[in-house]
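User: Can you predict the 3D structure of Response regulator receiver protein? Sequence below.
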Amino acid sequence: MGKKRILVIDDEESIRFLLREVIEDLGYHCLEAESAIIGIEVVVSENPDLIILDIQMPQMNGLEAIQKIRKINKKVPIFMLSAFSHMENVIENMGVDVQEFIPKPFDIDYLSKRITEEMG
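Assistant: Sure. Here are the predicted structure tokens for Response regulator receiver protein:
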């Protein structure tokens, strides 16, 4: 079996670059999408083992994307990223099915630890 795959969906290229470095340093394969729409296509075609998803994106936000992703794959773990710390409460109150809320700017050591734990 090949490397486990982590999909990063974020419209900011610098965030995707940083996360790709972290993910590859941990020994996983990084898939990337610059929009939720492309990210959903990647979920269908690649069936990633973990998704790291930004909330604020043009065209379709992360919350809308989660609803679509859950129709495709109910079990894939999802980490939400947001520059808005109050979004954690919004997500919890909405009952959105995510494993982790990661505020931006994120702590790379903490994120690395959580990825490793989630990927087993």
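The helical segments are 13-25, 36-46, 62-72, 87-94, 108-119. The longest strand covers residues 5-9.
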